[in-house]
Amino acid sequence: MQQITVQELKSRQDAGENIILVDVREDHEREEYNIGGIHHKLGDIQNMDTEALDGFKDKEVVIYCRSGKRSLNACLILESLGFENVVNLEGGILAWKEEIDNQA
Question: Which residues contact 41 (CB under 8 A, 6 or more apart)?
Answer without folding.
Answer: 24, 25, 26, 27
